[in-house]
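Q: Hi! First time doing this. I have a protein sequence and I read that you can turn it into a structure. Is that right? Here it is:
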Amino acid sequence: MSLQEVREQNKKKVIENALRLFLNNGIENTKVVDVAVASGLTERSVFRYFDTKADLVLAAAMHFFNHEVDVLHSFWNEIDKSGENGHEKVYQVLLAYAMLFFDEKKSLIFVQEAEIYLYRSNMLDTIRPSPIKSYKSKDGPLSIAICEGIEDGSIIESRNLELFYFNAFDSLLGLLQKMATTAYEDLSEEEQKERLVHFCKMLVQSI
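A: Yes, that's right. Below is the predicted 3D structure, encoded as structure tokens:
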């Protein structure tokens, strides 16, 4: 194995361990030396790959986002096989995102912490996504489902549809992040699911 390959392997290991520790312990409670020990490296070695802890947080956040994209595409593969119309697929896509909450609470908290940490480090712009495209771009499961609904007649094309597309994920993510905090700890899992199902239905009713 070449020196470059060793470096890339070690860098990947550092990113993966950093993400795991950030998820389990929080960004503020995780020191770079903790990541180094978990990766079998020295703290100095980690700083050869990342100039600052903020750079490491950024790398971990990007690794997390790329993983989530893969997860969501796997959801779509299952939904697409259902044989349902586009309108129902839109609901199923939103519900799939919502149900991630029960496996990904730590992830939602990490996303919030990463945004705050990178904002304080003047690095938040580095993880801002590109401007949202129109649903007509078929850029992701939700836009594909909407276009299928228009084609099969289960969804009526209108200005309201574009607004729905722009707002759906932002509003759902906002609710999920809020539910991941202690403000909702008194709700049972059944009550949490009931609220999320109702919210997804309410969103889809608007189209």
